[in-house]
Each structure stands twice: as C-alpha cells, then as structure tokens.
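hiii, so i know i said id send this last week but things got crazy w the move. better late than never?? heres the sequnce for the chain we talked about at the cafe, plus the structure i predicted for it. fair warning i was half asleep when i ran it
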Amino acid sequence: MGKFYTSKYDRLFKKIFFKEEDHDLLEELIEEITKLVIHVEKIVNC
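okay and structure toks below
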C-alpha cells in the first residue's frame, strides 16, 4: 500500500512556501514542475 497523505503535509507545505519572504522558493518549485517561468506577486490566504 502506498503512503497516504493527510492535511498535516499541506500545513507543512504552506508553512514553508507561503511565507512572504520565500516567494522565490514557491516560484522555483512551480517552475520545476511545470517547466514554465513564473513570478509570484502575491499569495492570498484562503
């Protein structure tokens, strides 16, 4: 059986990547996955 992901991983992801000073980390992750160049202007808390 594969690993089951719960919301605790989502919280960790948000804590790492959604900080204002770490937009570059989120940009790099998205660019690596999508192979597109992006620029994060603002992250809105849902």
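btw The CA atoms of residues 26 and 36 lie 13 Å apart. thought thatd interest u
miss u guys!!
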